[in-house]
Each structure stands twice: as structure tokens, then as C-alpha cells.
Amino acid sequence: MEDTTTLSVTKPIRCIVKLGGAAITCKNDLEKINEENVEIVSSQLREAMITGSSSRKVLGMDWSKRPGKSGISCDADDFEDQNLDSSSFVVVHGAGVGLQSDVHSLLVKICDADLLFLPSGSFGHFQASKSGVHKGGLNKPLVKAGFVATRISVTTLNLEIVRALAREGIPSIGMSPFSCGWTTSERNMASADLSMVAQAINSGFVPVLHGDAVLDDLQGCTILSGDVIIRHLAAYLKPEYVVFLTDVLGVYDRPPSEPNAVLLREIAVSEDGSWSVVKPTLEDMKKQVETTVAAHDTTGGMATKISEAALIAKLGIDVYIVKAATTHSSRALSGEVKGALPEDWLGTVIRFVGKGNRNC
Amino acid sequence: MEDTTTLSVTKPIRCIVKLGGAAITCKNDLEKINEENVEIVSSQLREAMITGSSSRKVLGMDWSKRPGKSGISCDADDFEDQNLDSSSFVVVHGAGVGLQSDVHSLLVKICDADLLFLPSGSFGHFQASKSGVHKGGLNKPLVKAGFVATRISVTTLNLEIVRALAREGIPSIGMSPFSCGWTTSERNMASADLSMVAQAINSGFVPVLHGDAVLDDLQGCTILSGDVIIRHLAAYLKPEYVVFLTDVLGVYDRPPSEPNAVLLREIAVSEDGSWSVVKPTLEDMKKQVETTVAAHDTTGGMATKISEAALIAKLGIDVYIVKAATTHSSRALSGEVKGALPEDWLGTVIRFVGKGNRNC
Fold this sequence. Notes:
Chain A has 2 domains: 206 residues, Carbamate kinase; 114 residues, no CATH class. Chain A is globular. With 360 residues, chain A is α/β, with parallel strands linked by helices.
């Protein structure tokens, strides 16, 4: 399905990070970034990527004019003695273009090759839902206009995230799936050339991709979610681990706002793709979770997250779902919680157990 | 050199338009868009593209929140009876990342495959010149940071142009050459996959490309100018005509600010690539222009423009160089001045004469 002929990464990818829409935007506010969270997350990413960077002066790479300022401050000399060598990370952020009311039918239609995380974030959502971009039909003026409006909204968010990362000294490069030539066929990924992503990584950059409106062979257009992108990147780049940053501590057995909701700490995925809760060891936990799905998917979407994460875990890649901008996210990003989970780390890890090896 | 295997445009391209940096930004102001010009140019483009559009209500496609506003106004119903069919245009805008002080050496080094228009515009220039991105060397922290900063600046401009066009009801789609996978080899175009541009056109969109920082096989990175992009697009998409929008009326025989500067109205390009001024018929005009180049290229760059435009004209494609946001630009964009030039049209046309046919 993918064109991997030209794909070759010269050094291993350490981590693919999903910045969930709910974590980086103000969910109930139109096109508003959660500046504080984005700043903390960017700083945590810098510390995880660049060894010893926490004690150093941050050399920002966003030399654009800031609102209200007339000039740019950039001291070129400061860069001379800097070693910016960093381990390879890829960032993908949500676009928030999922459609709550439509999510069940979407999940049914798009089958397992295109499972969708639930809507979150405030960019792209209005534009996509107003026009029905995900349903296709570019011959309709409203859909075509909505496609244009959605891409404007999600690329605006992308630019802001790239700038926030660059301000923290992360060599971030925005890459839109649409421009990279990623297309779908009846909503399933049809082509996703990763060669440019690989080249950017090989040149020492951190690609920043995002959920996007893309062309579809059969229905004209659709929405490609950040989570589908993550899964494809994980399959072909084989990172050491994947971190999903969200706005709750991790995956719960029911919507986290409900009383008695229990944080699932560790989920094991077996060879046949089924999964079970290892920690906490509540009896029949898996069944409880499944039961919760039907009633609550539109309010939390965590069961969908498990299914999606399980597909990545099945590749032998540990997946951490953790609350953004906390000590827990910092520890997950740095890889500190690999292996035995520290008792004081709060989050959910989803791991492949298979037959005791990491290949499947 | 190009990967054209997957390139196929289903309907002919009418026009490729270059929005010169000098025309769309405030040249002497850091990262400031010339809002008035951009708005007029966008409106002229809409009228040229969409037949009968001047009498219709403009249905904007930028549904993003505007500064100071809390919501978005978009009346979905308005789109129902719209026929948005438009002839195919491609827009390329300058990035202003050329380097004045370095332009002569650049022109020498990059040979005829990579002729460079002179610097203009206020986006990307500071970032690129501060770090020397065009010279390559991504292993240097300053160059790597400058690459990131340059891309942030030029994609900021791209987003603003896309939004301005969308506000006028033009289905514009931003496409960064970097993300499209365009790379150079020792500053010459090495790969420029046009398939995604073609697909966007076939789906009824107007791709909006821009000068960009790109990866280079040999020197790590460089700057790919909007004009090199235009020439490649022209060679493979074969538009009916190409329009360069700039901040002076056209090409003069010397810097337009000088007394007695004469506007060159028509330039003929012959089969061997040489060119001569047909109108006005001043004796030895060509030699005068050439003499002017050495002394004044850094102040106006018009001779460089002629050489570049001549390469496009040699393909049998008329090139119009015209002042943005005037009646002259409107007439050039609409194709009204094709054929015999109206006496009251001010601008420069560069045409292939060859042996009386349009093939070369």
C-alpha cells in the first residue's frame, strides 16, 4: 500500500508523539490554542530529545516577528558552540476534525484500516462538519469550499505548533499529508509516500505532521486523522515507543468524569490482536471496558484509543497514553518508564505480549 | 530530471501567476503583507478565473476566526446554487529569500538551470540571510536553525496568501515545495514531483506554491526560488500564458527610478534563446539593456527577469510582466491582451518568435 522503495532512515527513530487536539487546543473555544500546555509540552520534548538540554540556554528557531514587536531577536553567535544533535522524534498533532455526531457510522464504514480517534481540539472541526468533507463529493461547491476552509484551519494550527517547538530550539518542520501526496481510496490510506519524512529525519529535523483533508480516489476527498497517520508512521519507521498526549491521565474503564472511573495502568495485547487489562487486576475488566464503549464512545473515546493503540503495540512498539504537560508526560517522553512501570507514574501503557517476543 | 510519470492534467492550464514578493509584501517592513495589493490581486484573479464572477456575491472559503471576532460567519446555503467551475490557474509567490549582496556570485554559481530573480519581499529574507541557508551546511547549528526559521517565515506568508485568495472564493490550496518532496542537487532542481500539483488541479483546486528552503543532495540545503518553480511548472503544465505581478509597470531599459527609463513593451525571443526588444523600436535597445545589467542588477533585477522569462517564452508560452493591482494586471490575468497588444496596456510581454511557429 505504501511506497517504501525510497524510504530509508539512517538512524533509528526514538519516538513518535501524538499531540492530541484536546491537549493542545481549548476544546470548547473556536481555534484557540492552549498556549500554556503547548509551551510545557514543547519544553518537555526538547529535554527528551536533546541530551543535557535542560541546563542549557534555549536557542529559539522561530525568528519571525512576534505580535507587538517591531524586530526579531536572534543572536547568530550563540549557535556556534551548540551541539543540536538530538535523537529522532516525529510529531503528529490532531486536527480536531472528527465529527462527534457521526462517529459511529464512520467507525462502521471505514473498517479497521482506518479507525478514527474521537474528536478533540478546536481547529478544522467547524469547517469539516459544516461541509461534510469526510463524506466526499468535491463536485459540490460547499464541500469544495469546506475542503479549502478545513485545510486553512489545520495548517494554521500546524504552523503554530511548529513555531512553539522551534521557539524551544527543536528543529521542527511542518509537513502536510496533503502536500506530501498522501491520498485515500474510499477512506482507506491509498498512498503515503514517507520518503520526504525520512529525508527530513535524516537531515536532523523533526517532522510535524497533522490530521488533514486529503483527496480520495473514489469519493473525491475525506479527512485523514492524525491517528491513522501515526499508525502508518509507526509501521514503517519502527520507533522505540509511541506517546499519545491527551487531556486526561490515561485510559479509564469508563468516562473519566464518572464517579469510580478507574485508570487502566497496563494493557497487554496478544498476537491475535485481542487485549486485556493487566493492571489493575480487576476481574473481568476487559468486559467492563467493552461494555462501556457503546454507551460512552462519544464522550471519551478511550476504547477507540485502545483499539488503535493495540494495532501499534502489535508491532512490538510500546504505546503510552498520558496527560500532557505533567511530570507523567515528561517521564513517558524521555523513555524513563520503559520496562517496569514506576509505581508513581500515572498513565496507560499498551504493550505486546505475544509469545514472549516483540515480533509479530 | 522531473518525475513526470504520474503527471497528468485532465484539462489545460490557463495561467500560472507569480505574485512577486515586492507586490504582495511591504518591502522595507519586516514580515508585513501589503494587504491592499493582496486583496485587489485576489479579486482580479477571481474575476479572471471564474466566468461571470464579478457580478456575483463572493462566497469566501476562509472560515477561520478573524482577529477580534469570536465566531465565523459562513452560510452553507449560499453555496448550493453556486457554480464554482473555474479555469485552471496555479499561483506561485515569492518568498523574498534571495540575497542582494550575494546575488552576483549566486548567478555565476547556479548556472542557467537555476537563474534567480532578485530579492524582494519581507518574508524569509532575514532568516535566510542571517544563517546562509542558500549556501548549505546543515551540520552547522546556525544553518539548521536558519532553515527552520526560513520555513516558518515563508509558510506564514503562504498561509496568508491562501487565506486571502480563499476569502475571494478561490479554492486555493497551499503546497510547500519542501513537503511536495522537491529537492535540489548542488542548487539545481533534482526532483520535483508534480503529481500532487496535477491532482489538486484535476480536483478543481488552485495550488499555491512558494519559494522555499529545500534539501540539497550535495550541500545539505538551499533556497529554491519561486521563479525556478514557475519555470518548472510552465515546462510541464504548459499553461496558455504566464503572468508576473510586480511593483513596477514592467521591464525598463534601466532601473525605473532613473530619469528617462523606458518601459520595454514587447520582447521577442528567438530559437537560440537570444532576445530583442520589438517595441519600442529604439535602435540597439538590447545592447543598452545588457549594459545596464552589470551596474544595476541589484537595484532592479529586470534583466534577470528577462532572461528567466525568455526561458519560459521559448516554450511557446507568452509571459506578461505587469504591475500588480492595476487595470493592466487585471487585463493580463484575464488573457485580454493576448494577440495584438492594446495601445493603452502598460506592461511587458515576452514572446517566442522562433521560425514563425510556437514550438521549440
